[in-house]
Amino acid sequence: MKKILIIILFMFVLVGCKTTPTEPIETEIPSVPNNLQPLSAVSDCDVPTLQGGWVCIWADEFNGNVVDETKWTFEVGGFGGGNQEVQYYSRHNTEVVDSKLVITALRETMGGKQYTSSRLNTKYKGSFKYVRIVVSAKMPTGRGTWPAIWMMPLMNAYGVWPRSGEIDIMEYVGYDKDKIHSTIHTEKFNHNLGTQLGYSRVYEGVETSFKEYEMIWSPGSITTYVDGNKLGEFAYVPHFNQDVPYNQVFPFDQEFFLIINLAIGGTWGGAQGIDNTIFPTTMEVDYVRVYKQDYAVLDKEAPTVPTNLSLAQLKNTIFWNKSNDDYGVEKYAVYLDGAFHKYASLNQITFTGLTASQIYQVQIQAVDFVGRTSDMSETMLLTFSG
Ligand SMILES: [Ca+2]
Ligand SMILES: [Ca+2]
Fold this sequence. Notes:
Layout: H1 2-18, E1 49-50, E2 54-60, E3 73-74, E4 87-89, E5 94-97, E6 100-110, E7 113-117, E8 119-121, E9 127-128, E10 132-138, E11 145-153, E12 166-171, E13 179-185, E14 197-202, E15 211-218, E16 221-226, E17 229-235, E18 256-264, H2 266-269, E19 281-293, H3 295-298, E20 307-311, E21 317-321, E22 329-336, E23 339-344, E24 348-350, E25 359-368, E26 380-383
Parallel strand pairs: 4-7
Antiparallel strand pairs: 1-2, 2-19, 3-8, 5-6, 6-7, 6-19, 8-18, 9-18, 10-15, 10-19, 11-12, 11-18, 12-13, 13-14, 15-16, 16-17, 20-21, 21-24, 22-23, 22-25, 25-26
The chain binds calcium ion (CA) (2 copies).
One calcium ion is lined by residues 299, 301-303, 325-327, 368, 372.
């Protein structure tokens, strides 16, 4: 490959010598459509890149003496987290010590609650989409604790919980020692219906050693890991969810922010009571690093054409086989009668507001993260039912 490049360059130089300066040769094709620029890592991330072209875009190594409130907001109060948790969340339960965020749950009375702890989030300070997040943490000890590293949507694009989704990268309940849980909640799959999608596995020593809790999130896919071992894998498959629009199954095409908290008691953490001898108990976080793939540098190929356009059970809805791409399809452009209609984040679309009984010619085109597009799909005829 290099040899060919050198030969081409050499030929270009020769040709260039023969050309007069007033006739420049227009041969340059932009290598990256839309002139997407390479990413630069933030300066305060101790591991600025990961193998595979991941660049650190947000991080907290907890190197100062206090919580960096340009990155984190304390959620203060005794609201119970929507799970009848029994702690009062306060600032004084969190400190930064030895390059770690330390949340200490205490047995003390505050705001009508018998326990105090902390919950911090990055809302409006760090919100992310299609990223890889790596958090090194050590779990607290004891029956009644319920720490979590999780994400909620910045904007409720599809409505209030659970419609706009929740991503629990990791949760831990102290009475079930060493078992780490990874769960997503959506309109169709949530714990109110008992249909949440989750994975659990035992990892020895989560209370005594730091482990990396990690998530890789791409369109239609969320995978979680503990110390590099896969824990949870959530993927959108339209064929199995023909009865609902994709946002009821996989609303994860919007910005989400991070939450780190140590709850006490509650519907899950307190399911076997609270052992009052465990306090104080601490959750420690060594670092939080957020990476994005550097598509401008990595991506070289256009996606493959979407195939197998099919009618779904849901009215006015079609789905198709995912396109392949060297670094991922960001979205699909949907065309009606040859004109651009709208984008779909995943490989399904529900049409609304068209003319009843009219027949439309539908075509789909895949678009990758730098804007390269596939060929147009075959045409499918859709009769819109009003
Ligand atoms: Ca640290
Ligand atoms: Ca590509």
